What we know:
This protein has 552 residues and is α+β, with helices and mostly antiparallel strands. It has helices spanning 17-28, 46-50, 61-65, 72-83, 91-105, 108-114, 149-166, 233-239, 262-269, 327-335, 348-354, 364-367, 371-379, 385-393, 403-412, 421-433, 443-451, 455-461, 535-550; strands at residues 3-13, 33-36, 54-56, 143-145, 170-173, 176-184, 187-196, 211-224, 252-253, 274-275, 280-288, 298-302, 308-311, 341-347, 356-357, 397-400, 476-488, 491-492, 499-501, 507-513. Helices cover 33% and strands 21% of the residues.
Amino acid sequence: MTTTPLSADVLVIGWxxxxxxxxxxxARQGRRVIIVDQEPRSNLGGQAWWSFxxxxxxxxxxxxxxxxxxxxxxxxxxxxxxxxxxxxEDEWPKAWAxxxxxxxxxxxxxxxxxxxxGFFPVVGWAERGGYGALGPGNSVPRxxxxxxxxxxxxxxxxxxxxxxxxxxxxxxxxxxxxxxxTLSNGAVVGARGDVLADSPAERGVASxxxxxxxxxxxxxxxxxxxxGIGGNHDLVxxxxxxxxxxxxxxMLSGVPAYVDGSMQIVSQVAGAHLIGGDRMWHYVEGIxxxxxVWPMHGIRILPGPSSLWLDATGRRLPVPLFPGFDTLGTLAxxxxxxxxxxxxxxxxxxVEKEFALSGxxxxxxxxxxxxxxLLKSRLAKxxxxxxxxxxxxxxxxxxxxxxxxxxxxxxxxxxxxxxxxEHVRREVVARDLEMENDxxxxxxxxxxxxxxxxxGDKLIRTAAPHRLQDPSAGPxxxxxxxxxxxKSLGGIKTDLDGRALGADGAVITGLFAAGEASGFGGGxxxxxxxxxxxxxxxxxxxxxxxxxxxxx
Length: 552
C-alpha cells in the first residue's frame, strides 16, 4: 500500500470548531497548516455545525438590556460551585476555568463580533440549579444564542480556513484517519494513518471505513481536536461512573457516529495523560428523531419550567429536579430508578411556549437568520414548525383532549406498563389544585411564577401558569423521554497553551490538544458539571490558545 509523505508546520487532527479555530490562528501567523479528518468534506465544522449555537457571556450588553446584573465574581462562584473540582488532577482544569471566565467576561464577545458573529437579543436561562448560592447552576441568564446558530459560529472560522486554502498555505485532507502519532526522541513530530475511500455521505450520515491507502505527515506541531466519545455508546457505558447510577441499556445519540473517541487511545499511546474520563454530560430530555440523520439520532428538548416530570413508574421527580434546572442531578436520579425513560405531562400551551429543540436544523428561523419566520414561529400562537412536526410524527408524543384519554394512551405506549396510572392521576390533579390561587407549597409552581419576573422568560420561554387540565390550554400532551448522549467532560490534560502533558506533568513536545478532546481545556475545564453555553465557548478558547501556541 502506497504511503504519501507530507509535511507542515502545524498539523490539525479534526475539523470541528476547535480545529478550525486552531488552524485559522496558525495560518494567520503565516504557518503552513494541514487539517485531516476521517469524514468527507461535507462534515467540515463537525458537531458545532449541528448545535443550537449557545454561548456563555458574563455581563454582556444583551444581559444588561434584559435587566440582568452579572459579574465576573458571580460567574466564578457559579462555575466553581457547578464544577465541584475535588481531585489533585484538577489543577490545570481550575486554571483553565479561571482563564475562560476572564475570556467570557472580557474579549470573547468583541473577538466574535469582529468576525461578524451576532447574537439573539433575548438571553436564555439554562441550568438554573435550584440549590443554595454555592451550589450548581447559573444564578442569572447567560445563554446567548448565536444569530445563525451552529453554522453561524462555524462560518467565520471556516471562511478563514478557506482563505488560507486558496492562498496555498493550508491544506484540507478529508478521509484521512490518524492511527498513530509519530515520535522522535519523545517528541511528537506528526502522524500517520489510513486514507479512506471517497464517500458521498451527506453531513452527519455515517460513512464507510474502507481503506484505500496510507499517509504520513511530519509537522513541527500537532493539535488533536478530534472530539469526544458520545457517538460510541460502548465507550460511554465503559466510562459511566457509579455516581450516575447504572448506564442505560438503550440511549439515543445526540452526536453523529464519527464522534467515536478514536484519538483518545492514539494520544495516550504517544504519552498524553487522559483525565476525568468518568466525567460526562448527557441529557434526559431526548426524543427519537422522526427524520434521523445518523444512527439512533436523538433530539433534546430544551424545556421551560412548567411541565410535570414523572419517572417511568409515574412518580414525580423530587425538588429541585424540574425541567431545565439540574441536568446531571436529574440524570443520576432517573438512572437509580432502574428504567431508561421518563415522562413529561404537559399542555399544548406549554409546548408552544416552552419547548425548544436543540440543533441548528431544528431552528430554521434562527439558523437562516430569517426575521419574519422568527417573529411568526416564536411570537405567534402555536408551536414552531419543527415542534409541530414532532407532535405529528414523533414516536414519543401522545396528544389527547383529556386526562383519562391521555392516561389510556400512555398505558398502551412502549414502557407504559410500568406506570401506576392512579398515582399519575393524583400527581396531575394535585398540581392543578395548587394553581387555584397565588399561593402554593409546590416549589416548581413557585419557581415558574418567579421566573416570569425575568422579561426574557415571560416573553418567549415561560407559559402563563395554568392547570394542565384546563381545556383552553389543551389538548394535553405526554412525552416519553430518553437519555441522549452528548459531551465528554474529561480529556487530554493540557497547560494553558494547550500543550499536552504526560502523567508526570511534563510537556510532550510537539503535541497540543483543543476542544472536547482536551475536556474543553486542561483535561476538564467543567469539572463534574457544565453551565451550558460553555461547550462551543470552550472550543473557541482552547482552539485559539492551542493554535497560537503551536504557531510560535
